[in-house]
Amino acid sequence: MDIRAASRTSERGAEVDITVSPNSDRQGTEGTDEWRKRLIVRVRSPPADGKANKEVEEYMRTITGCRAEIIKGHRSRQKTVMIYGDANEIIASLEGSL
Predict the structure, then answer these.
(1) Angle between helix 87-97 and 51-64 (nearest 10)
(2) Predicted TM-score (pTM) of this structure
(3) Which of 7, 38, 54, 97 has its CA 20 to 30 A from that of 1?
(4) Is 86 in a helix, a strand, or coil?
(5) Which CATH architecture describes the domain 3-97?
């Protein structure tokens, strides 16, 4: 699946739909879920007290070099992350992480 199926561009940057896998033994992108059209992101943190959410935001910032913020799904494994910056550069960075 192309990462563009899991993302939308806006004037602020790119919105990316993800599925989070908390309590993982490693951090990183695992690929894509073609059925749900989401990027799969693994994080080490537990899904308690916002720890996994913070790690997701930090990881997305590390990959793209841009500020990232979860805008939907704070209490769900399915989330939408807003990444602020040039949408084309953000999507290229995400594709490079796969």
Answers:
(1) 100
(2) 0.90
(3) 54
(4) coil
(5) 2-Layer Sandwich (3.30)
Tokens encoding 23: 């309590």
CA distance 22 to 48: 10
- Per-residue pLDDT of 81-90, as tens digits, reads 999 999 999 9
Give the 3-state secondary structure of residue 1. Answer: coil
Question: 30 — phi, psi (to 5°)?
Answer: -100, -10
Q: Which of 73, 62, 55, 98 shows the shortest CA–CA distance to 15?
A: 73
User: DSSP secondary structure string, 36-83?
Assistant: TTEEEEE-SS-SSTTHHHHHHHHHHHHHHSS-EEEEE-TTSSEEEEEE
Tokens of 9: 């561009």
- Tens-place pLDDT, residues 55-67: 999 999 999 999 9
The Cα 42–Cα 26 span in angstroms is 7
Closest CA to 19 of 4, 27, 31: 31
